[in-house]
Task: structure prediction
Amino acid sequence: MENKIFLSFIFLVLLSTGVVAAGAGEGSSADTQTNSETNVDDGASQRETNVDDGASQRINCETRETLRERVKCRIENKGRLEITEEANVPEACRRLEQTEAVGRLGKERCKALYANVRGCYALPRVSSEGGRDACFRRVAGLGTAVVSGNADKTALRQYVVTLLYEIEERIEAKQETGDITSEQAAEVIGMIVEIKEKIMNGDSRDEIRPMIQELKIKIKGLDNE
Result:
C-alpha cells in the first residue's frame, strides 16, 4: 500500500509541474513522440526532417559514453541517426533485468510499454474521447480507473512512466523552438530516464522521491528562464 501511495505522490508532483494536464499552457502544437531515448527515426515527428543522405552520413549516437551525451547526440541529429539493434532499446530499459519480479518490470515489458505508447502520440492531447492521456492509461493497464491507492501497482508504475515519457516530448519541443538548448534538454531528459529506470526497477521511494523533486525544480527553472 505504501508503494501505491508513493506512486500517487509522484503523479501529484507531475501535476504540480503543469505537464500532466495535457496542453495546459504548453505553447506547442507538436503532437509527437520523443526519440531521444533511441535512434529511431520513424517519421512520426512532424518537426523532424528525415534526410536520407546515405549510410556514410548517418550518426551513431551509441558511441557516446554517457547517457546525457547520447541523448544530446540524438536531439541534435534527428533525421540522420544510424539504426542499430542496441539503439532501438530505450535507455530506461537497457539495464533492467530480463525477468520480472514483484514490484519490478522486466526489460521486455519495458520495451513493449514504449512500443505501445507510441500509438498514443497520433492522438490529440485533449478530445471528447479522452485523448492522449486516456490512451496512456489504457496502455498502462489502468483503463478508465482513476489514479488512487487502490489501483494496481504495476499499472501505476507503467502509467507514471508514460507521463514521464510525455515530459520528455515536451522538453524536446521546447528545444526545437529554441526556448532551451540541446544541452539543457539532454540534462532534463537524462534525469527523467534515470527516474523511469528506478520506477520500473522497483527501487525504494526514498531513492526516487528526491530525484522527482529535483526534476520538478529543474523544469520550473527552465520555465522561468
